[in-house]
Specification:
α10 links the parallel β12 and β13. The longest helix has 46 residues. The protein has 11 helices and 13 strands. The protein is elongated. α4 runs antiparallel to α7 and α8 packs parallel to α9. It is an alpha/beta fold. It has a 6-stranded mixed β-sheet with strand order 10-5-4-11-12-13, with helices on both faces. A 3-stranded antiparallel β-sheet has the order 1-2-3. It folds into 3 domains: 121 residues, 2-Layer Sandwich (Pantoate--beta-alanine Ligase, Chain: A,domain 2); 200 residues, Rossmann fold; 118 residues, no CATH class.
C-alpha cells in the first residue's frame, strides 16, 4: 500500500524554499522589526543624554547667576566651566556645546546642545540625533531649601507605602541635585515623624535640650520636684538618650520660637518613657476595684507598692538602675530615624531616606513643627538662611498616610507614652482621646499656618488617608489646591514627586 504524504505547512514551505524570491521577501519583512528595535535603543540613548545635558545647563545657569557683576565674557567662562564639569560624558555622544545670553529683563539663558550617535537607525540614514536643553535664571543668584516631612508611623509599613515613598523621595533628590554630589544653592532636610520626632542623640550638648528640668513637662513623671527626665537618664547605667523629644506646651509646640534658658517652656524635654507599674515584666497586670490595669513598659522593680501612680512615679527605682530588657525601657517608642538638618550634599540625604523605618503612632503637627524649625534660621537648627533673604526659596513637602491618633491603653496612663506624654496628663486639654485628637487637628492647622506665614511653599500629600477630615486638613496645609496630592496608587505617588521636583527645579532656576 502506498503511504500518503504528510501535508507541508505554509510557513515550513516558506522557510525551506531556497529560491531568491523567498529570501528577498523575508529580508524585506524583517526590516521594520529591526528598525523598530533600533528606534527604541537610540531613543533611550537620546533621553539619557538630554537628562545629562539639562543638568549641565542648570548648573551652568546657576553658577553664572551668582556672579551678577561680571562682564558677559566672564559669565560665559564661568558658565562654560560649570557646564563641562557637570556634563557626564558618554561614548554615545559627541562633545557638547553651550551658549550664554543675557535677556533684556536681566535673565541669563544657557543653551546646551549635543549630538547623540545612532547605531541601529544609522542604516536608514539617521547617523546622529541633536539633543538640546535650555535653562534660565535671574541674574541675581537664587537658591532652594527644602524640608521633607515624612510620616514614619506603623501604617506606612503596609502595602509597600514606605518603600514606595523611599523610591519617590530618591527620585526627587536626584532630580534636584542632578549629577552633582554637592550643590552650592540647594539644601535638603529630612524630618521623619511618628509619635515622636528624633532630633539626634548628638544634640545632647545643646542648651535647647532641657537638662535642668526647667520645662514643667520634664518633671511630670516623678514624685519629687528635684527629679526630671534628664536626671533619670543619668541614673540608668546601660541606656542613653536616643534623641527623641517631648512637645513644648500649647502653640509653642508648632512654632519656631527660639529656645531660651530663661524661659523653661521654650526648651525641649528629652523623652523618657517612665517605668510603668510592675516588677520588670512586659505584661504586668493589676486588679483594682474589679478593673484590670495592664502595663507593657515595666522594666524596673517598683520601689513603692501602694497606688499605681506611686509605683510609676516614685524616683528611687531609677537610682543606679540597670535595664535588662531590649524591647522595653526609657527609650521605648523612639525607634525613628533622626532629623537630617539642611544639607547640600546628596548622599547623606539619600542615606537618611533609605534608613527610614515604620513604627509608632501619628502626631502630624509635631512633624510640621520640626519641619518649620529646620527651615528657620534660628535655634534649635540654624542651617537655614534668614527669612529676609529673598534670593532663597524655602519649601516643605509633607506626607502622611493617616489621621492623628493616640494609642489608648486600659491602665491609669490611658495611652502609650508619646511626645504629648500620657493621655491621662491631658496636655492637649483633655484626657478624652477624641477631644485630644481634635486638639491635635487644631495644632496641625496652626502649624501649617505658621509655615505658610513664613512664605514657605508647602506641598502636601494625603497618601491613602481614609479620613475625610484628615484629608481636608492636609489639603488646607498646602500653599494652594494644586499643591495638594491624593495619589490613588504607588505609581501615582512616584509621578507626583517627580512633578514637584521638576517644578522646584524650575523655581530654583528662575522665579
Amino acid at each position: 500500500m502506498k503511504q500518503s504524504r504528510k501535508p507541508v505547512l505554509p510557513l515550513k514551505r516558506f522557510v525551506s524554499n531556497q529560491s531568491g524570491a523567498a529570501a528577498i521577501v523575508l529580508a524585506v519583512a524583517s526590516v521594520p522589526l529591526v528598525m523598530a528595535a533600533g528606534v527604541a535603543v537610540d531613543y533611550g540613548n537620546s533621553v539619557a543624554a538630554q537628562a545629562r545635558l539639562q543638568a549641565a545647563t542648570d548648573a551652568a545657569a546657576l553658577a553664572a547667576g551668582r556672579e551678577s557683576n561680571r562682564t558677559h565674557g566672564e559669565l560665559e567662562r564661568i558658565a562654560n566651566d560649570y557646564f563641562k564639569s557637570n556634563y557626564a560624558a558618554s561614548p554615545d555622544t559627541e562633545q557638547p556645546s553651550m551658549t550664554l545670553s543675557v535677556e533684556a529683563d536681566g535673565r541669563l539663558q544657557v543653551n546646551g546642545q549635543v549630538k547623540v550617535k545612532n547605531y541601529l537607525t544609522a542604516v536608514a540614514g539617521f547617523d546622529k540625533t541633536t539633543v538640546t536643553a535650555t535653562s534660565q535664571v535671574s541674574k541675581d543668584a537664587t537658591g532652594l531649601e527644602v524640608a521633607l516631612v515624612f510620616d514614619n508611623t506603623g501604617s506606612m509599613g503596609n502595602q509597600s507605602r514606605l518603600s514606595t515613598l523611599k523610591i519617590a523621595a530618591r527620585d526627587f533628590v536626584n532630580i534636584l541635585f542632578g549629577p552633582r554630589e554637592t550643590a552650592d544653592t540647594l539644601k535638603i532636610a529630612v524630618v521623619p515623624f511618628s509619635q515622636f520626632v528624633n532630633v539626634g542623640a548628638d544634640k545632647s550638648g545643646e542648651d535647647w535640650i532641657d537638662k535642668a528640668g526647667l520645662n514643667p513637662y520634664s518633671k511630670a513623671n516623678f514624685k519629687s520636684n528635684s527629679w526630671h527626665n534628664w536626671r533619670a537618664w543619668t541614673e540608668v547605667s546601660n541606656r542613653s538618650w536616643t534623641g527623641c523629644v517631648e512637645s513644648r506646651v500649647g502653640t509653642l509646640s508648632v512654632d519656631d520660637t527660639p529656645p531660651d534658658t530663661g524661659n523653661g517652656a521654650t526648651l525641649f524635654p528629652p523623652a523618657f518613657a517612665p517605668d510603668e507599674p510592675g516588677s520588670n515584666r512586659s505584661d504586668a497586670s493589676f486588679n483594682v476595684g474589679g478593673i484590670t490595669y495592664r502595663y507593657d513598659n515595666s522594666y524596673l522593680a517598683d520601689s513603692r507598692t501602694n497606688s499605681l501612680d506611686n509605683r510609676q512615679r516614685h524616683q528611687r527605682k531609677y537610682q543606679n538602675s540597670s535595664v535588662n530588657s531590649t524591647s522595653r525601657g526609657p527609650d521605648r517608642g523612639c525607634n525613628i530615624q533622626p532629623i537630617m538638618a539642611l544639607n547640600n550634599v546628596k548622599q547623606p540625604v539619600l542615606n537618611t531616606l533609605q534608613n527610614m523605618t515604620a513604627g509608632g503612632y501619628t502626631h502630624v503637627a509635631e512633624g510640621v513643627g520640626w519641619g518649620l524649625r529646620v527651615l528657620s534660621p534660628g535655634a534649635p537648627f540654624t542651617e537655614g538662611v534668614p527669612y529676609s533673604n529673598d534670593k532663597i526659596t524655602k519649601a516643605m513637602v509633607l506626607l502622611t498616610d493617616g489621621e492623628n491618633t493616640f494609642d489608648t491603653e486600659t491602665n491609669h496612663n490611658m495611652s502609650t507614652y508619646t511626645a504629648y506624654g500620657h493621655l491621662a496628663e491631658a496636655r492637649l486639654g483633655s484626657s478624652n482621646a477624641y477631644t485630644a485628637i481634635a486638639a491635635q487637628n487644631t495644632l496641625l492647622q496652626q502649624a501649617c499656618d505658621n509655615v505658610k506665614a513664613k512664605e514657605i511653599v508647602v506641598y502636601s500629600f494625603a497618601y491613602n488617608v481614609p479620613s475625610a477630615t484628615q484629608r481636608s486638613l492636609i489639603k488646607n496645609c498646602a500653599t494652594s489646591p494644586e499643591k495638594y496630592f491624593d495619589p490613588p496608587t504607588n505609581a501615582a505617588l512616584v509621578a507626583s514627586f517627580q512633578q514637584i521636583a521638576d517644578e522646584l527645579r524650575k523655581l530654583h532656576l528662575s522665579r
